What does this fold into?
Amino acid sequence: MAQRAKAFSDNQPGAFFVDESCIDCGTCYTMAIDVFEGAEGHSRIHHQPLENQRLRASMALLACPTSSIGTEDKSSMAEAARAFPDPIEDGVHFCGFTSENSFGAWSYFLQREAGNVMMDSPRAAQPLLKRIEELGGVKTMVLSHQDDVADHATFHERFGCERIMHADDHYAGMDRYIEGADPVALAPDLLFIPTPGHTAGSACLLYRETFLFTGDHLWWNPQRGMLSASKRVNWHSWSKQLKSLEKLLDFNFRWVLPGHGTSKRTETAQEMRRELERGLEYLKKL
It folds into this structure.
C-alpha cells in the first residue's frame, strides 16, 4: 500500500502520488503517459489526471507490481479493476496486475474459440481471476522465460491450464517443455518460437501471424524510435540473442508485445520487417 508520508517530493501535488517503494518498472508511464513519467530511477506524477484520464491512472495504480501508487480519489477504482484484461486488438488483452516477482513484466490474455491463452503470468489478483473466469478461463499458459513466471501455479490451480516453457531454462513445475531450436505449432494459430539469448530458454509466441509476444527478447524503444533489445540486461548470450532476432525476420507479424518496454504496431508485416532490420543494424554495432 502506497504511503503519502513516503511519496517522492517531485510528484505534482494532488490526489495521485508515487512513493519510495517504486522500482521504476515502467508500467505506469507506459499505460498512462499523460499522468506518469520516469524520473531518475523512479516514476512520478508529472500531471494530475484530468477527468477523462482518471480511469487510466487508476488502472495504472492497480497494475503497479509494488503498490507504489496511491490516491485519495477512489472514484474510478471499481471501474478500473473491472477494466482488466485491457483490450488491445482482436481478442488480445493486457492482463494488468503485474508482479514484483517479474519486475513488473507485462502478460497478455488471448481470448479465442479454441481455448484462451495467457502469455506469461500476471499477479493472481482476485479481480483479475474473477474476470478471466467470466471470459472462459485459461486453457494454455505460455511462459517466455524463467523470469516472468510470477503466479503461474495459482492460475494452473484455478483454471487447470497447461503451462509451456522451453526446456533450456531448466525451470521446474511446467506441464510441457519444448526442446530444440525449431518452432513448434501449439495450435494452427499459435507458434512457439525458441529465441535463446536473454536466457538459454527464451522464447516468443506468434499468434495468427499478427501478434508476436516477445517477453524480454525485443521491444520498441521510443527514445531511439526503433525496435531494441538489451545487451546490459542479458543473462545468457548476446551473440545468441542477435541470431534469435535475425531468426524473427522469417516470420510475419505486425505487433510486437513485450514483457518490458513499449509495444509496437505497424500496418503491415513488411513494415515491421523493415523496423526489425533497422533495429538489428543498430544492435549489431553495440
Summary: The CA atoms of residues 164 and 176 lie 5 Å apart. The mean pLDDT is 97.
